[in-house]
Design a protein that fits this description.
The complex is a heterodimer.
Chain A lengths: L2 H18 L3 H23 L2 H18 L9 H20 L35 H13 L3 H12 L4 H8 L3 H23 L11
Chain B lengths: L3 H12 L5 H13 L1 H20 L6 H23 L6
Helix pairs in contact in B: 1-2, 2-3
The chains are: A mainly alpha, B mainly alpha.
Chain lengths: 207, 89
């Protein structure tokens, strides 16, 4: 682990210890350090600004409320990610009251991963689109994933949590994280290929 | 040599650089012979890069302000309760 990350963990646990003793400025510092990440995470899972803001507030209010129960066995960030993921999924459940989206949604890990679209991409495909268009393409691609895949992808590849931290934050096993991440990545690859593939080209361009 | 199915199973470890050297060697030798898997590896890697590159980490100022206000409300409620334990909020 790089030294900077170790320093981050040290600072975090010192702040958490102070906040637990009632130091409100220490808690505010934690809020300021993680609010952007938690908002982005909630936005990706709920796909909605208003819900993401609710999740953001609920997460920190709950964290404050339950800080005395936080044992410090995991990182504070992993702990609040878990709260934020649960709050986000509750929002999704409320919105789609006809469909439940449990966090531990069973996934058949033995099922084959299907790859349908195999095509070479443009050199810098993202430059074909404006920032806004690209953002929309990516948002829609993530939104199209099942919540169980989406949350793992967001935590691993966007928030850059480790496989173990993701497993802990979601309360699922390490193999489940790995399997869901593979599916999420391959499904996203498939969706993006439709936008980014080189016109009039196919896989044989490489041969 | 790896089969395409085995290649897919091991793809994540390769991309995350968590697989051992022997596995990396086998994957690399597979993709030099299998153009389909080469494209899958290349475009999956790019998929992750595109997401990492453009996902902004911004928090609108008003959202941050409302968050800090909500936290402040909560913390002053607690202080109030601590001072007057008999009064229910």
């Amino acid at each position: 682990m790089p030294a900077t990350q170790e320093a981050g963990i040290f600072d975090e646990s010192a702040l958490v210890a102070k906040a637990r003793e009632g130091d409100l400025s220490a808690f505010n510092e934690l809020v300021n350090s993680y609010s952007r990440k938690i908002f982005r995470l909630a936005k990706h899972i709920t796909q909605n600004d208003e819900d993401a803001e609710d999740v953001l507030q609920e997460t920190f209010l709950k964290a404050f409320e339950h800080l005395p129960d936080f044992q410090g066995q995991s990182k504070f960030y992993t702990w609040i990610v878990r709260i934020a993921v649960n709050e986000s999924l509750m929002k999704l459940r409320k919105r789609k009251s006809d469909r439940s989206v449990p966090l531990d949604e069973p996934v058949d890990t033995g099922e084959d991963t299907v790859v349908r679209e195999i095509a070479v991409w443009e050199e810098n495909p993202e430059q074909k689109y404006s920032r806004e268009e690209l953002g929309q393409i990516l948002d829609e691609a993530v939104e199209g994933l099942r919540p169980a895949f989406r949350t793992v992808f967001v935590l691993r590849d966007i928030e850059e949590l480790s496989t173990e931290e993701t497993a802990e934050a979601l309360g699922i096993s390490v193999p489940a994280v790995k399997s869901r991440l593979l599916r999420a990545r391959l499904q996203l690859r498939e969706k993006l290929t439709r936008f980014f593939k080189r016109k009039g080209d196919d896989v044989f361009a490489y041969m | 040599m790896l089969t395409c199915k085995e290649f897919l199973t091991e793809l994540n470890d390769y991309l995350d650089e968590t697989g051992d050297i022997e596995l990396r060697r086998r994957i690399e030798s597979h993709i030099t012979l299998c153009p389909n898997c080469f494209v899958i590896l290349d475009t999956t890697k790019k998929t992750i890069q595109v997401f990492k590159g453009v996902m902004p980490q911004t928090l609108p100022n008003d959202v941050q302000a409302r968050l800090l206000k909500a936290v402040e409300r909560k913390t002053s409620e607690r202080k109030l309760r601590a001072r007057s334990p008999g009064i229910q909020p």
